[in-house]
Design brief:
Protein name: Ectoine/hydroxyectoine ABC transporter substrate-binding protein EhuB
Order of helices and strands: EHHEEEHEHEHEEEHEHEHEHEEEHHH
Distance between the termini: 34 Å
Strand order of the largest sheet: 11-10-12-9-13
CATH class of the largest domain: Alpha Beta
Organism: Taklimakanibacter albus
Largest sheet: 5 strands, mixed
CATH architecture of the largest domain: 3-Layer(aba) Sandwich
Radius of gyration: 19 Å
CATH superfamily of the largest domain: Periplasmic binding protein-like II
CATH topology of the largest domain: D-Maltodextrin-Binding Protein, domain 2
Strand content: 15-25%
Structural class: alpha/beta
Number of strands: 15
Number of domains: 2
Helix content: 25-40%
Number of helices: 12
Shape: globular
Length: about 300
Amino acid sequence: MPALRHSLSRRHFLGAAALGATSLVLPSIARAEGTMARIMKDGVVRVGIANEKPYGFVDTDGKVKGAIPDVIAALLAPHGVKELKADIVEFNALIPGINADRFDIIGAGMYIRPARCEAVLFTNPVTRTGAGFAALKGNPKGVKSIAEVAAHADAIVGTQNGAAQVEELAKAGVPTDRVVLFANATEALAGLKAGRVDVIYFPALELNELLKTANDPTFERVDGFQQIMGANNEPEYGYAGLGLRKADTDLKDALDAELAKLISSGKLLEIISAYGYGKEELPDGVKTAEQICKA
């Protein structure tokens, strides 16, 4: 993969006049020029991340790393993009952020969901992921699926505000008063330790990274977790794509074309495996973003 220089863009509060000028002028310039044309001309792409491992994060050395930024770098290198600037926002601020022209691509492992498709354009899937539970040692409530949480009168589950897991819990019939929403996985783990929740529900890869980083014997990954089953009695996966503004169809076309090359060459697996992904996390190559958006 051609090496791209990653740098962190720090946002500072501006005076009201400066902020007003930015919001009025810069987005109109971006729209007039077109995002794809601008990033090719400047050799720079702005990426929104939620600072979460293994998706996209700022490492201790100040560099932006993660499976999704590395994939974006590989996809855009053939188009002359040499620099990636990252803007860190909370996960549930990513869609508002891209539509406010804070960045050009959502690079945070965001699942393609019909409701999100109404607000942003997605590339074809980059990865697919199952989910899992973490609990205190011994899993005191004994729950191994979100259906069991729904059926257990006093089991409380925690997950991330704005994540696909919120919708999944609702569909499984878990009452909202037994769902605690946290800003991120680290806060959710702290909530588990404090007894605010009985289990936390996150994508499997994120959960693995979370527990590895915590290195705390107080917690355990719940063995035998039962994935949500679909209509064909097969596990349902979350398919993550890159989020774009609705108008950026040319950028989507370019990214989808390069993504197909990465998948067929085996380069995609090479990139994401550095962050704990395996073959089972590769997209199946069958579902397009448009198909998932209509599901």
